[in-house]
Predict the 3D structure of the following.
Amino acid sequence: MWYIVLGLITAIYILLNFIIPSGGMFESYVIRPLLWVFLAIITYKLAQNEGLNILKFKKIRRWYLGRTPIHAGLLLGGFHVAVLIIVGILFGFGKSPYSQTPFYILINAFFIGSFLVGTEISRAYFIKKATTNSRRYTTLILVVTTLLYMFIRLTPEDFSALNFNTPELALEFLGSVLVTSLAMNLLASYLSYLGGATAAMGYMGTLLAFEWFSPILPDPHWTILALVGTIAPAIGFIVLQDSIQPFTEKKGLHKRRRKQGSEHGWTIVAIFTVIIVFFSYGYLGVEPTVIYSGSMRPEFDVGDMVIVDDIKIQDIKENDVIQFIRDNATVLHRVIDIYEENGGSYFIVKGDANDKPDSEPVFEGQITGKAIFTIPKIGWFQIYAKEMFRKIVSPFS
């Protein structure tokens, strides 16, 4: 009965992309989710009738990466997210395009949750059905299934970017969309093959949750995102291969010892990187700034990281070092004078290494904080990383 599921997927794709209008609240948040839920229910019922357990397989005797298939998927998804956060710290974040109000978080959770359940239950059904009947073509089955679910995630608008008359845009689409989607879906298919729908849901669900519910998202050049989107699943695949004990293992073969705390280490890394990004973008009340010029020598030197704290305008005094925005650049200079004019406060600032004060005063609306302490030289890592990034992307600019 696999052709019924394939027919439903085809019909849903045509309905969502060519028939049902997009953009409306009812179409987007009611009809679309209900279609995916309908697919999940029909697929699950068909699997039950055929005696197929598609939620959790028994291909693996023991999961060394986590205690259960879904735990393994969550850990691999957490690793992928941790890498994305590190990239964001190095190369910058952008604001999420999705609303973070409680109402939209709720309806977006239903939106992506229904898509996740529909796609992963049907993916597991295809893989279980095909590999049960013939194990000779397991690799081919995984590849075909991966291509199908990669295609489902893409819209006709996505393919419109594949314009070979503009090689740069075509290369960007192939690298940041097509190849990354292929890599992630291949790992999801392999997880589904080993552990069923729950394993793939753990992995893909973690990535979708980060994409939809994080208030900020990594915003580097597309080449960096393409690199991460390809390498992170590849590393996950290798780690997964090294962390499973299949039923086919021969008796008497020495069992690999469980690497104690390995999955806990991954969880700690993910939590630590989340804390770092919250710290880096001021969510913990302070914000680090890397010094790129020598205008404040000897107080701050190039490569130092300065911790900046929020401050009320009325609390700023002469000799304080303040951070402000000027011409889309962040500057740290010392206050040498303050005056009031037209109901607002103005600050005359000067770099310690400069001969003269800045040519323009700083208005209170430009100020973002006050320097409170310095960590010497730690910012050189970010400076080197950005310089390497500039050299990598310069041929594509």
Remarks:
- The longest strand covers residues 329-341.
